[in-house]
């Protein structure tokens, strides 16, 4: 129904924002990531997800389209509602979350307040192929995560290590450090090889 709102930011807290567009103030539920992105702005463009429930109509606001896309993937997982998805996106950036899912690190994902290990594992199982296959969008964080993996694998094979051994070590390293740079990943992988 709504794609985005562009207007004046009239109220802001870490949990919600009010954006005035054409004389109407829209109350938006936001993540800490979005709060950080828009906190020093007066004019904002916020991407919107409109949720209609039996007892309420809610608008979720996001500073980037990528964050909204990941939110929509998260709420598509059985047992994950808007509040849980917002909490996940308040804890991890879209890039970090995509790397966690790509590296299947349920232990790190369950660090989100109110998220148990079974739900974390379900998120990973349900979204692993969607995040890796689509890259969320053309500039998506998951694509960035697979690029880091590919670059690290290339670097290790150029150093003379076999592809099979390198892949095994990289999977382990990415589980431990999902948001590390290529250089850090290669350095950590060399310690294991």
List keywords for this structure.
193 residues, alpha+beta, OB fold (Dihydrolipoamide Acetyltransferase, E2P), DNA polymerase, domain 1, Helicase, Ruva Protein, domain 3, 3 domains, five-stranded mixed beta barrel, 9 helices, elongated
Q: In the CATH classification, which architecture of the largest domain applies?
A: Orthogonal Bundle
- Counted by DSSP, the helix tally is 9
Instruction: Give me the secondary-structure category.
Output: alpha+beta
Order of helices and strands: EEEHEEHHHHHHHH
Mean pLDDT: 85
By CATH, the topology of the largest domain is DNA polymerase, domain 1
Spell out the CATH superfamily of the largest domain. Answer: 5' to 3' exonuclease, C-terminal subdomain
Radius of gyration: 19 Å
Quaternary assembly:
single chain
Counted up, domains total 3
Distance between the termini: 52 Å
Q: Look at the structure and give the CATH class of the largest domain.
A: Mainly Alpha
Low-confidence stretches: 133-144
The helical percent reads 40-55%
């Amino acid at each position: 129904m709504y794609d985005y709102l562009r207007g004046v930011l009239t109220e802001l807290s870490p949990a919600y924002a009010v954006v005035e567009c054409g004389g109407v103030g829209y109350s938006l539920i936001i993540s800490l990531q979005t709060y950080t992105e828009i906190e020093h702005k007066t004019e904002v463009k916020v991407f919107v997800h409109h949720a209609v429930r039996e007892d309420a109509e809610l608008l979720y606001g996001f500073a980037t389209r990528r964050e909204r896309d990941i939110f929509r993937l998260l709420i598509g997982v059985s047992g994950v509602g808007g509040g849980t998805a917002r909490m996940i996106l308040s804890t991890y950036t879209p890039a970090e979350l995509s790397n966690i899912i790509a590296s299947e690190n349920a232990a790190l994902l369950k660090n989100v307040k109110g998220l148990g290990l079974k739900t974390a594992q379900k998120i990973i199982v349900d979204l692993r192929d969607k995040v890796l296959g689509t890259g969320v969008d053309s500039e998506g964080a998951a694509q960035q995560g697979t690029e880091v993996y590919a670059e690290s694998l290339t670097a290790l094979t150029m150093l003379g290590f076999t592809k099979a051994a390198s892949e095994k070590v990289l999977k382990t390293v990415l589980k431990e450090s999902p948001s590390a740079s290529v250089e850090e990943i290669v350095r950590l992988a060399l310690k294991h090889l």
